[in-house]
């Protein structure tokens, strides 16, 4: 199930965020302005998508607990985001060059490579990707 994140989800989301190679806990601070969508299993949060609204929406993080990967949860989180946005809205994200599984998912969802940032991550370059929400 996909739903809006709630204040009570934050401790679990923080534990999930720690699974990222370069976690940025400050992004989860409500004052940062990000919004959460979560995926649950029997009511427990097992993944999340953190996005920042604006003229162009930026997806900052997507994390699914390893025990729940390859179940379509990342795809569902993105569909939940796209359903909340107006047609024509641009959505951007950044992904590590070596993260082939994520790049494949994003391409499947309609994201296209826009640019490469050689200093995106501490350990290497990142690819900037862009999609436009369909009507």
Features:
alpha+beta; 7-stranded mixed β-sheet; 21% helix; globular
Overall pLDDT level? 93
Beta strand count: 7
Helix- and strand-based class?
alpha+beta
| Distance between the first and last residues' Cα | 23 Å
Strand order of the largest sheet: 1-2-3-4-5-7-6
Low-confidence stretches: none
By DSSP (H or I, 4+ residues per run), the number of helices equals: 3
Helix-strand pattern, N to C?
Answer: EHEEEHEHEE
Multimeric state of these chains?
single chain
Describe this entry's structure for a reader:
- By secondary structure, the protein is α+β, with helices and mostly antiparallel strands.
- Helix content is 21%, strand content 40%.
- It has a seven-stranded mixed β-sheet with strand order 1-2-3-4-5-7-6, with helices on both faces.
- 24% of the residues are buried.
SSE blueprint and pairings:
Layout lengths: L1 E3 L5 H8 L17 E7 L2 E9 L3 E9 L8 H12 L5 E7 L3 H9 L3 E10 L2 E9 L3
Parallel strand pairs: 4-5
Antiparallel strand pairs: 1-2, 2-3, 3-4, 5-7, 6-7
Brief write-up:
The protein contains three helices and seven strands, in the order βαβββαβαββ. The protein has 135 residues and is α+β, with helices and mostly antiparallel strands.
């Amino acid at each position: 199930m996909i739903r809006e994140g709630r204040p009570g989800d934050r401790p679990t989301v923080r534990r999930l965020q720690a699974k990222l190679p370069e976690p940025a806990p400050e992004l989860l601070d409500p004052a940062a302005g990000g919004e959460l969508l979560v995926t649950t299993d029997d009511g427990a949060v097992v993944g999340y998508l953190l996005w920042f609204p604006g003229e162009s929406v930026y997806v900052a993080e997507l994390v699914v607990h390893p025990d729940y990967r390859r179940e379509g949860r990342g795809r569902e989180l993105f569909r939940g985001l796209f359903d909340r946005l107006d047609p024509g809205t641009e959505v951007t994200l950044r992904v590590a060059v070596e993260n082939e599984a994520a790049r494949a998912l994003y391409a499947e969802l309609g994201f296209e490579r826009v640019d490469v940032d050689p200093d995106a991550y501490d350990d290497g370059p990142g690819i900037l990707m862009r999609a436009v929400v369909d009507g």
